[in-house]
Amino acid sequence: MGDTIQFSSYFYFKVIMTESLNRPIRVLVAKVGLDGHDRGAKIIASSLRDAGMEVIYTGLRQTPEMVVNTALQEDVDAIGVSILSGAHMTVFPKIVHFMKEKGLTDVLVTGGGIIPDDDMKALHDLGVGKLFQPGTNTGEIVAYITKWVSENRKF
After folding, report:
1. Cα Rg for the chain, rounded, in angstroms?
2. Residues spanned by the domain of 140
3. What gap in Å lies between CA 124 and CA 89, rounded to an integer?
4. pLDDT, mean over the chain
């Protein structure tokens, strides 16, 4: 597979997911701040659900602390943040901070939106997983989350 994850590969990972976890992957999809554009988040949520994952959608106008508290209460494997407002350099570090504070050290935080490459690198260095640009094939997102969870979650 190399660095590129093919759309069809998520079916392979779905088999791994059910065998290694004995349950569907649980993903929290969140919209943080005043960004009211949620079409992309809803498309991602539907794609994850179609791939067999359990999806919890927070709705609009969440704070980073609310997102992390919901992730803890829902016992999720991954948090996906959709952000188009340009506040990614504020939102993601706060989410990572609250995750560490609450002991969510084996939960993936990933997301997408309009995020410059240099900012993606800086966020990755802080502990944020892969970030996706608008137009990314949803199968690539499914495969990434599935692979990360199967390799990193501690049970």
Report:
1. 14
2. 24-152
3. 11
4. 89
Encode pLDDT of 41-75 as tens digits.
999 999 999 999 999 999 899 999 999 999 999 99
Q: Is residue 3 part of a domain?
A: no
CA angle 67, 134, 121 (to 5 degrees): 70
Q: Tell me if the pTM is above 0.85.
A: yes
Cross-strand bridge partners of residue 81: 30, 111
User: For the chain, where are the alpha helices, taking DSSP H only?
Assistant: 9-21, 39-50, 64-74, 88-102, 117-126, 138-152
Q: What is the CATH number of the domain that holds 117?
A: 3.40.50.280
Token pair belonging to 75: 């016992």
> Cα(116)–Cα(127) distance, rounded to whole angstroms?
17
pLDDT tens for 105-129 read 999 999 999 999 999 999 999 999 9
Q: b vs e for 27-45, b when ≥16 Cβ sit within 10 Å of the residue's Cβ? A: bbbbbbbebeebebbeebb
